[in-house]
Amino acid sequence: MTSIIFYTQPDCPPCEITKTFLKEYGFSYELKDIKADPKARKELIEVYQSYSTPTLVIGEEIITGFNLERLKEVLKIENK
After folding, report:
1. Which of 16, 28, 47, 56 could cross-link with 63 by S-S, CB 3.0 to 4.6 Å?
2. Beta-sheet pairing, 61-64 with 55-58
3. Residue 29 near residue 22, CB atoms below 8 Å
């Protein structure tokens, strides 16, 4: 199964929608809260050059911001 790292923060509606989307399709992920974990915030900025949530790292792919269509492409989810 594909490894997914999910950078999130509290009070992020797009993050909640993305979590629901991943759950509906049966994907698990490693959640990193950038507000609660300074190391995760630093990693998000320095390694992935992202300042926004949600940011998802799926293998070599990085999806910054709310983009369910790109997420479907990367995870090879076909439209129903």
Report:
1. 56
2. antiparallel
3. yes
Residue 1 pLDDT exceeds 80: no
Locus of tokens 């129903």? 80
Q: What is the pLDDT of residues 24-68, one digit of tens each?
A: 999 999 999 999 999 999 999 999 999 999 999 999 999 999 999
pTM: 0.92
What single-letter amino acid sits at 32?
Answer: K
Q: Residue 2: is its pLDDT beyond 90?
A: no
Angle between helices 13-24 and 68-75 in degrees, nearest 10: 30
- Beta strands (DSSP E) in the chain are 4-8, 30-33, 55-58, 61-64
Asked whether 32 and 5 are in contact (CB, 8 A), the reply is yes
Pairing between strand 30-33 and 4-8? parallel
